[in-house]
Specification:
Aminopeptidase i, Domain 2
Length: about 450
């Protein structure tokens, strides 16, 4: 079992100002235009998962349920979702036999954002709108999930810097008192009647706006889970249209590249000579530690692998077979560096997880396809974040490589920046991995 998960994290300083112009469509053969469409659809992790689901269905992947038995077959293409914010998709090689490898690219669907809190304690920055999901009561007494976007500017924090010693102490707003947004002048007076205002956890005016978007009664909304979203669309910018300006580049850029690489490398002819299983794993809650049912800390991916093996074997699988397969597995995840125009391989401490062997495997795949890579090591005097790679690697013992594309300034801000060319390079690396990794790994003999 070969497991290889690549996962992009962009960590740069936030910027307070973004000036850009809308530009021409991307060059022929580039996936950048499709990425912009994906970003503009994916305001939240729920919308990102829904858009990924739509694209997979359009490409012929079969939707599975974790609650049902799986009947899988070689050559088949499948996916399932969890919490509508985590997605696992996979394609089985026609020459697959039990014990062969999984080739996995992993990323995450969530991005740093501000979320709505009950009653008056909303959080947000600049002119924003809201998007997410709601739980609706149906006429038959059941409950259903529905996604919602309010596309017009709805909230704004009337925040001023007067009184802050920014130059001396840095920008240090109080997250509880300085980020209260303005919704309306007299929201209670303007609110429609409700059956029981005392039981409403959110402002009735906001609930009315949501009900109008959803085409339901305000009292039919049982619960909401909403993110605060920037109103500006994702776009190209820069003097030569060389940049992408967008929110949520961390980590939807890599989610899209991984998803597109899987779809584009898993046509019927692509799988005809494949012995492995190609997989994408998109997790939620990475930005808050991954410890959730839909995060990388949950055994979602490994449970799916075991279920796939069980289904394809059509017989009882000894635990030792799964353990031996995992021993041969390969996991990768990505993060960012500052420079531009190639994919990085990081050899750092075990906050990341690259070894000399795993770095070689990644770079060798790129070399075969004439794709640029660059080694990157975190400075000894600089802290570095951790992410899903070490979580998955340490949890089950998989060979791991850290790799990623660069994101320029404004990491984790409302508007992030990355280079247009880096998106196509990342996509080509991912696609090359699916096409070539098995043959490279078979030539390497390391105990």
């Amino acid at each position: 079992m070969i497991v290889y998960s690549l996962y992009f994290i962009f960590r740069n300083r936030a910027s307070l100002l973004d000036i850009h112009v809308l530009v021409n469509s991307p060059a022929s053969g580039s996936i950048v235009g499709d990425l912009l469409d994906y970003l503009n659809e994916s305001w939240t992790q729920f919308h990102a998962t829904a858009e990924a689901k739509r694209q997979l269905v359009a490409a012929g992947f079969h939707h599975l349920s974790e609650n049902d038995d799986w009947e899988l077959k070689p050559g088949g293409r499948y996916f399932f979702t969890r919490n509508m914010s985590c997605l696992i998709a996979f394609a089985i090689g026609e020459k697959y036999s039990v014990g062969n490898g999984f080739h996995v690219i992993a990323a995450h669907t969530d991005s740093p954002c501000l979320k709505l809190k009950p009653k008056s304690n909303y959080l947000m920055v600049n002119v924003q709108t809201v998007a997410g999901r709601v739980i609706l009561r149906a006429s038959d007494g059941s409950f259903q999930q529905k996604l919602v976007k309010v596309k017009r500017p709805l909230l704004r924090v009337p925040f001023i810097l007067t009184g802050f010693t920014v130059n001396q102490d840095g920008f240090k707003p109080n997250l509880e008192t300085h980020l209260n947004p303005l919704l309306a002048t007299k929201h209670d007076d303007a609110s429609p009647d409700s059956k029981d205002k005392s039981k409403s956890y959110h402002h009735p005016l906001l609930m009315q706006i949501l009900s109008e978007e959803l085409g339901c009664e305000a009292d039919d909304i049982a619960n909401i889970e909403l993110n605060i979203c920037d109103t500006q669309p994702s776009c190209l910018g820069g003097a030569n249209n060389e940049f992408i300006f967008s929110g949520r580049l961390d980590n939807l850029a890599s989610s899209f590249c991984a998803l597109r690489a899987l779809v584009d490398s898993c046509g019927p002819k692509d799988l005809s000579d494949e012995h492995a299983i190609r997989m994408v794993a998109l997790f939620d809650n990475e930005e808050v530690g991954s410890d959730s049912m839909q995060g990388a800390g949950a055994p979602t991916m490994f449970q799916a692998m075991k279920r796939i093996i069980d289904s394809l074997a059509n017989q009882y699988i000894r635990e030792s077979i799964v353990e031996c397969a995992i021993r041969q597995s390969f996991l990768g995840f990505t993060k960012n560096t500052i420079d531009q125009n190639c994919t990085r391989v990081s050899c750092a401490n075990q906050r990341y997880a690259t070894s000399g062997t795993t770095a070689f495997l990644f770079k060798e795949v790129g070399k075969i396809h004439s794709l640029p890579t660059q080694d990157f090591v975190v400075r000894n005097d600089m802290g570095c974040g951790s992410t899903i790679g070490p979580i998955l690697a340490s949890g089950i013992g998989i060979r791991t490589v850290d790799c990623g594309i660069p994101q320029l300034i404004s990491m984790h801000s409302v508007r992030e920046i990355c280079g247009k060319e880096d998106i196509d390079i990342a996509y080509n690396h991912f696609k090359a991995f699916y096409q070539t990794f098995s043959s490279v790994d078979r030539k390497l003999n390391v105990d």
